[in-house]
Amino acid sequence: MVDIPYEGIANIPPAEAPDVELYHPRSWWTRYVFSQDAKVIAIQYALTASAIGLVALVLSWLMRLQLGFPGTFSFIDPNQYLQLITMHGMIMVIYLLTALFLGGFGNYLIPLMVGARDMVFPYVNMLSYWVYLLAVLVLASTFFVPGGPTGAGWTLYPPQAILSGTPGQEWGIILMMSSLILFIIGFTMGGLNYVVTVLQARARGMTLMRLPLTVWGIFTATVMALLAFPALFVASVMLLLDRLLGTSFFMPSLVEMGTLSKYGGGSPLLFQHLFWFFGHPEVYIVALPAFGIVSDLISTHARKNIFGYRMMVWAIVAIGALSFLVWAHHMYVSGMFPQFGYFFATTTLIIAIPTAIKVYNWVLTLWRGDIHLRVPMLFALGFIITFVNGGLTGLFLGNVVVDVPLSDTMFVVAHFHMVMGVAPIMVVLGAIYHWYPKVTGRMLNDVLGKFHFWVTFLGAYLIFFPMHYLGLLGVPRRYFELGEAAFIPPSAHSLNAFISVVALTVGFSQMVFLFNLAWSLFKGEASGGNPWRATTLEWQTPETPPGHGNWGKELPVVYRWAYDYSVPGAEEDFIPQNQPPRATQAVQGAVS
Amino acid sequence: MSAIILFLAVIAVITGWWLSQQRLTAKPWLEEGSAGDFPGGDAMTWPAAKIGLGVFLAVAGSLFVLFISAYSMRMNAVDWRALPVPRLLWINTGVLVVSSVALQWSSVAARRHDADGVMAGLLTGGVSAVLFLAGQLLAWQQLNAAGYFVASNPANSFFYLLTAVHGLHLTGGLVALGRTSAKVWRSAEIADTRLSVELCAIYWHFLLLVWLVLLGLLTGWTDDFVNICRQLLS
Fold first, then answer.
1. A229, A543, B135, B162: most buried, per Cβ within 10 A?
2. Of residues A202, A564, A584, nearest to B43 (C-beta)
3. ipTM
4. CA-based Rg of chain B, rounded to a whole angstrom?
């Protein structure tokens, strides 16, 4: 190892922080249901998010049936189609991805990776999950209320969102707003935990620059979410008041169903500003945890330290800060002051720089690595390719002049599904294959996993690549039927049918994954504590799955960064973060 | 949206200052060794609850500033008719100041291990906070009686909305205050409750600050102030 001058020993933190009393469950109910253990809460979050995510997946199948074979399925009418797109979008972005990355992976990984016994406010953490569950239930209930769920589109733009004529105007929109408000309250409770745990409960020796990038990603995303979600909260509350009390925050004066409505003077643009002030950071709230997790997967499975760790950290922080200054690139055609567009186009292109740095660093980490093409690695590679693809079309749409003709076409749909749908889901799946052994003590089946990866990866491309082409033709999004339009050739219709067939196939192949999850829980090969021979702390727990309090009697002490893979002269090709230096030095001495 | 951008800039400066203390330029791959070999970058030594409150105040601050952003954008529309601020609000403001001062007093008493002082401060603070909320409701009633309904003008809507959000935050604070008082009542040891009392006081000061900002906004003083600044700049 390199010689480092030992200059005095200042500022040594106490060996053991004053032991916060750990909550001990007394009954089955408080152990598995109303649990305050972050690991149980994580699993609850993940299962709830996956369940509602499956509902959204089925909604997308219905949409594809209609788009691929218009006129064939009489049970889908135009109103229902609008309801399908709205619920699919809202569930996937907020109730699945945000909840899964921060509530699921955040809860499981943060305490284990930073070497803490649990989150710092376990009771609030438990409340966070139950409020989230309530939000999901309120959302799901809209399928059963009179008028059905709202069909306003996931962006919920007023004035149409609350006017009669939009499906779900009676109950759907009210419950949607209430559910969002609940979600934000629940998330804030969880988010406080994630941030404070990283700040305050790190193990001895775990400096910020020794944190695994997963923690950096989740931490930064949480900070962003805490500051950005209030914008959605404000927008939801004000829209709810417009709908319920007849205020005119957003509602201009207009004629509704032939009569002059009670509204007047409000600004729909104001809603868009608030919505996208949340909406754009939201993209990175989903992307940053994915960036972090994928860095760890690549490093572990390529047996190589992450290339440019410092630059990776700075890039995460820079993306987090910049993402608050790009929101109006979603509003080029909204009628806002046109010259704003150029400011936001510039900031949008600037944010591509730290993002590109991350991509280069992933590729350079792979360069001459000892790459093991195990399932988590396959998904990580799939993510990089997909994210680059989606990111490049983002450069198209970030420019005002290119965006204007492409606005509201299938090109936009293809872009955001690649960059914010497929790419993060690749990471979610890779992360599940990677950490499942730690959560259950058993490996997932490898053959089924590889089948799952190839069908999902190739299928995603067969679905979303042709959509770019449809968009360039000018096929609009959110249309129930294309009808007879001169600019849409017959081939576009057959392409739509093709996409639908692939989408259904890929959708059903996810059942293989679900089967794998359930089967491996009982029949999977026992994994041992550290099957991937990884360095980070969660793999060094005394028990697998980690017990209550994570670490047995003594908290771990950290001596090195998270990426000591293939260190020259070391006995093994990985050195755990909590391995003291002397042990390795002795080994090195013997080798040299 | 300039208000929220300004707020985020302040948050960014604070975060940037903190990050600059964390040795983000360290080369962790070269720094093998136990804690303390490399000064800086250790976990915060403040109690978790205090950091938690700090983060929560940033979130709540962001919420209020976003409401203010929306207010400042909406008030430029032609249909905006500012409503007369009820005089009662000045009394309410005084009561809230009393509440905040009482909690500060309680916090100082806790540092001096003066159990009676703590309890007296908490009670005065709690009672005056409840009085403030009652006063706000009375102000609503006066406005309603005078015909300024919630939906009749956006200025009215914002008045009711902002006061309600502020009131709800204060109500949440009262729950925490109630729990703290119960803890002080039960426990003989002041040291155990010192932190809770201090956190209550911090939260109350924050809500007082928010209220003063909102009051400035609702009375139109902020508007005059911004105009003066603009004239000075141009």
1. A229
2. A202
3. 0.94
4. 22
